[in-house]
Amino acid sequence: MTQDKTLKGYIAISFAMLFWGFSFVWSKQLLNAGFPVFTIVFFRLLLASLIFVTLFKIQGKLEKVRKGDWKKFLWLAFFEPFLYFIGEDFGLQQVSPSFASVIIALIPIVVSVTMYFAENEPLSWRLLLGAVISIIGIAVMTFGPDSNIIFNVKGLLWLLLALLAACGYSVLLARLVKEYSPITITTYQNLLAIPFYLPFVCIFDLRHWGGIVWSANAVVCLVCLAVLCSAGAYMLYSYAAKHISITKLTVFTNAIPIVTICGAAMLGQEALTSQKILGIFIVVAGVLLSQLRKTATAP
Length: 299
What we know:
This protein has helices at about 1-30, 35-60, 70-95, 95-105, 105-120, 125-140, 155-175, 180-205, 215-245, 245-250, 255-265, 275-290. The protein has about 300 residues and is an all-alpha fold. The two termini are about 25 Å apart.
């Protein structure tokens, strides 16, 4: 039974990575249509919350949150999606995507160390080595002879904020999945994140709404981001966290660029070069290594 649940957990995390990987492709299409960054996140959270609250409230699948746990849910939403995407988005405005991808790829290592001190979760050399190998693979995929590396301290600080947010999110999620279902966690995570984004939408984005091009493709992208990424992927990630350790799950996030590159190649947005294919194989090898269990020795 345990192996069956673990297998389901790996299936869940694989689909979560698939959805998050395509989120960059859909987001790029919305940005090209004139949608500001905060507006995209705000609408995807709003739509996801409306669907989840309506659907699961009717079905009676939303659990009652204990009074003392509302702070945990509020902090969960603050760390991710709010603080994480703030750090990542502002960081990407200051540095090149290739540099940002390598910094973000450090999340599995940073989360592993954090969980060791916060939750007494053992550090595994296989996991750490697998994470390092996957980082090398990401570097191979993103750095090339034509790469324009842009770096400054301000951008690095924003990306470090995203790393810290991922750590806070991981610790809280590890605690909440012991008490609540993935449906409840994801629903309130999205719902409580909306007020954090609203001031940014009003201050930075409202004046740009006139330039938004509403089309059938834009609506489809927005719905996909809401249903598959803000709702589905986070719910699948929470489900996987019930059966697989958080430290192992975070290594899977380094596979997101693989989906993004392949999705962009299918849509003709970029070429799938031999260097990127090599990087993909290295990332996959690193992720697989990180998931290996220690074999029991005979007495």
